[in-house]
Design goal:
The chain has 376 residues and is mainly β. It is 3% helix and 57% strand. It contains two helices and 19 strands. The strands form three sheets. An eight-stranded antiparallel beta barrel has the order 1-2-3-4-5-6-7-8. An eight-stranded antiparallel beta barrel has the order 9-13-14-15-16-17-18-19. It is flat, with a radius of gyration of 23 Å. The two termini are 35 Å apart.
């Protein structure tokens, strides 16, 4: 008699991650230590719940869920002890046996309770964190070994990034690289064959589908200043207030296989802080800087980006590298995109993304709605 397929399996996991913390400006990270000793330690503890659907074909070993974490950088006086809340998804990349596999996993969420710069008027106030809440992104690769039915030991390496998406200053971002170990308990699990969603599928037929997405956000902005005068080059001054951002993307995508899409995207964006150099009100500087309002199209830009997307149940992870070919001079440069798409109904998805300039300079968040049209 054939074994009755199991319904979804609930999974509970406890884990610990340790790593080396750094950011784009190591001098700022060192300033977080008031006694002159440089500490780059990062440590976090995690409690997570996830589920999977065994015996459901190629996606039978894909797991997804929600986690909470307690994070410390061994400097609670300067940056606090943030509490993280995040969603995650993972799956086997290679299955060496029924017990052992190499898995990938991403985490996406927020960390609360940071001590931002100047929060307590402390002379040791850090120069790294500008907001009490920061986005949390993590990517890891780990070995997953089934000690027995229902009990798994996992360990590997991961990369983590904390940032407020340029919505507050300062925002150099905090990054960690390190190792992770965890123990997963799966009540009611029967030993079943782990399968990789990246295996070939003879029933799949490739084709073209289209993504259309609109988004908005807000951001802090700088303006070049030298010797008390606004110029094209020189040092940058932080402008007061926040600036609006809105965008629209259109991306024809080639469905290469069930788990991977690639294509090109036309990226249109309007930013309230773009192209201000020609509209500066003379003799206004610093916090009192004022600008005439530029015409709409003087603050609009266009770029073209190459996209790659990992497609999984519910979530898709989309990354892109592009170049701005039209708009104000400061926009005509390379930019990078990371987007998490969460499908909520049919082709409709929520988008949470982040845009960088030239691989290191924070630009803006991308919070919006999109449609995937024509996908089989």
């Amino acid at each position: 008699m054939a074994e009755e397929p199991q319904s979804f399996l609930s999974c509970w996991e406890i884990g610990m991650r340790a790593g080396y913390a750094f950011n784009s400006n190591p001098i700022l990270m060192d300033r977080m230590e008031p006694d002159g000793k440089v500490s780059h330690s990062a440590l976090s503890w995690h409690l997570r719940y996830s589920f999977m659907r065994p015996n459901t074909g190629r996606n039978s070993s894909v797991y997804q869920g929600i986690g909470v974490s307690v994070n410390t950088f061994m400097q609670p006086r300067e940056v606090g002890i943030p509490l993280g809340v995040y969603v995650f998804q993972g799956a086997p990349m290679f299955c060496f046996s029924n017990r052992l596999s190499l898995d990938y996993e991403w985490n996406f969420g927020a960390a609360f309770g940071w001590k931002k710069m100047g929060q307590d008027d402390d002379i040791h106030s850090n120069l790294v964190v500008g907001s009490t809440t920061n986005a949390y992104l993590n990517l890891g690769f780990k070995l997953n070994y089934a000690l027995s039915a229902g009990l798994h030991l996992m360990g590997g390496i991961d990369l983590t990034h904390y940032s407020n998406g340029n919505t507050s200053w300062p925002n150099p971002g905090v990054n960690t690289v390190g190792g992770a170990v965890g123990l997963t308990f799966i009540p009611g699990e029967k030993m079943f064959r782990r399968t990789s969603p990246f295996s070939t599928d003879s029933e799949f037929s490739s084709g073209i589908s289209y993504d259309v997405m609109g988004y908005g956000a807000w951001r802090k902005a700088y303006f070049p200043v030298e010797d008390g005068a606004f110029t094209e080059e020189g040092e940058k001054a932080l402008l007061p207030g926040h600036f609006g951002v809105a965008g629209l993307t259109f991306a024809p995508m080639w469905d290469v296989c069930p788990t991977f899409r690639t294509g090109l995207s036309l990226d249109l964006q309007w930013s309230e802080n773009s192209g201000l150099s020609k509209y500066h009100v003379p003799d206004t500087y610093g916090e009192d800087a004022k600008f005439y309002r530029p015409p709409f199209f003087r603050q609009a830009s266009a770029g073209l980006s190459a996209r790659a997307e990992l497609v999984m149940p519910i979530f898709s992870l989309n990354i892109g590298i592009g170049y701005g070919f039209a708009g104000p001079r400061e926009i005509r440069r390379s930019y990078q995109l990371v987007n998490l798409k969460t499908y909520i109904y049919g082709p409709l998805y929520l988008n949470v993304g982040y845009r960088l300039n030239e691989f290191h300079s924070p630009s803006n968040l991308m919070l919006g709605l999109g449609l995937t049209l024509g996908k089989k």
